[in-house]
Amino acid sequence: MASHQESSALLSTAGPRKTAASTLVFISLAITTAVALSAAAAFSFLFFSSSSSPSPHSTEALSSRPLSKLKHPVVLIISSDGFRFGYQFKTDLPNINRLIRNGTAAELGLIPVFPTLTFPNHYSIVTGLYPPYHGIINNYFTDPIDGQVFNMGSHEPKWWLGEPLWETVSNHGLKASTYFWPGSEVHKGSWNCPSNYCMPYNESVPFEERVDTVLSYFDLPSDQIPSFMTLYFEDPDHQGHQYGPDDVRITNAVVEIDALMGRLIRGMEERGVFQDVNIILLGDHGMAGTCDKRVIALDDLAEWVKIPKEWVQSYTPLLSIRPPPGYSTSDIVAKMNEGLESGRVGNGEFLRVYLKEDLPSRLHYSDSYRIPPIVGLVGEGFTVKQTRSSGQECGGAHGYDNAFFSMRTIFIAHGPRFARGRKVPSFENVQIYNMVTRILKIDGASNNGSVSFADAVVLPTHSNLE
Ligand SMILES: [Zn+2]
């Protein structure tokens, strides 16, 4: 009760400014996006001019380096979950910095897809598709037609649309391996999650064991070394949720990821393959700090419209609502926004509700029957709950608008097909699929990435190489 009065008091002082504040929040958001998008388009011309400054390696900037030991190109994608862009500057990370210094990195980070959640993003990375087209529109959701529920343990092929890289690779007669990745256990096309090459998800496997297994693939006869490999770590996402992005325990987790990169690099060097492997180190999304005083409660909207919890498919940071048949969704949206803009709902200016077809098109989040008809965009660091509680917890969350800088993650690529010491402008992770197919010299499935973008980042090969 006390906290309710407290927030009401905050509310009345915030009241007169609410229109300006909410306009500001969403305008600044739109500007950020416009900048990001135009940067992605405009900077593609600048890749070569902004690339490697003259260095001992400058002659190599024009084409890839020949393989010394491997008989075929190999791409290893490593995901460090929730590795927010900027974590790499928290402390000295010698191994990650070695990859950055001698590789190609997104100077201001990799842009996740919306919603900036783990499953939608990991599956966009390996399919090149926005969530409505690959089908994984949230970490959990209900199919409105048959009522079946998708969650992070669902492996039935019906959920997983598009063609993930391991399927593309095996369709071309090449080998792929997955040490955890959302969707990797699903049998699709010629991919049947072969034992020893496709690990069933088990979060208790020590990170070192995962690295050592990937290294062991390089001890196999040449024709059995996978052309495409994935490797996944749950950290620092885990610590980010619990303590927020600024906690010292994030720094410690990132130091551990760096040590794992050191273990990987050493193991590859011992096998003579480090310079031959194209390593892409990335994350799926960033992390924003949250605190209970930044809560928006749906019950506070009751004066305008009642939103029963049964209608809510997910609360935060992606609010999605599916009212039962017979309700006017546009009427509900109008009443919710009226309440949120009234100045009488705590933090109301930090939630804006849309019919999914009215969401900004830059979010690419409407074209799927699986997406509920009403979607809310939540202000950075805010939390939507059904009921206002008296909690005072602080932590971290992701899932917000991908225009927020805090949602960006890292892209660091090192290997024969990536220029040394090059910085590229930020880009969306749907571009990565084409980079991998380009390196492996195979035709990929159609997707939302552009071929010209992949060509600008991946070095061309000499015809007489490899
Ligand atoms: Zn994640």
UniProtKB/TrEMBL annotation:
The keyword Membrane applies. The chain crosses the membrane at residues 21-48. Keywords: Membrane, Transmembrane, Transmembrane helix. Pfam families: Phosphodiest. InterPro entries: Alkaline_phosphatase_core_sf, Phosphodiest/P_Trfase. The keyword Transferase does not apply. One of its GO terms (molecular function) is hydrolase activity. GO terms for cellular component: vacuole. This is Ectonucleotide pyrophosphatase/phosphodiesterase family member 1/3. It comes from Salvia splendens.
